Amino acid sequence: MSEWSGKRDEVIRLRGQVCYLCGEHVPMDDIHIDHRIPRIHGGSNDFDNLYVSCSTCNLQKGSKSVDEFKTVVMNDLDWFISLQP
Ligand SMILES: [Zn+2]
Predict the structure, then answer these.
(1) Average pLDDT across the chain, whole number
(2) Which end of the chain is more exposed for a tag (fewer CB within 10 A), N or C?
(3) What are phi and psi for residue 40, nearest 5 degrees?
(4) Model pTM?
(5) 3-83 in CATH: which number?
(6) Are 55 and 30 spatial neighbours (Cβ–Cβ below 8 Å)?
């Protein structure tokens, strides 16, 4: 097991299978581990910067910070509504 997959399992175990961005339950095979503060903005690989997200949010968020992501969501309500059950 690589160091990263061990860390991934630990993040999922500690935080649960819930996307921290949209609040939805995330199936195990759809889980992406997101850097809350993106690496390019100086975010670390430590647990306090690693969160569970779904692939949809993770790909939308990309290298944005959470605040930037929320701004995008506010500007793209159709996409946000499409996330709702
Ligand atoms: Zn999500």
Answers:
(1) 86
(2) C
(3) -70, -15
(4) 0.76
(5) 1.10.30.50
(6) yes
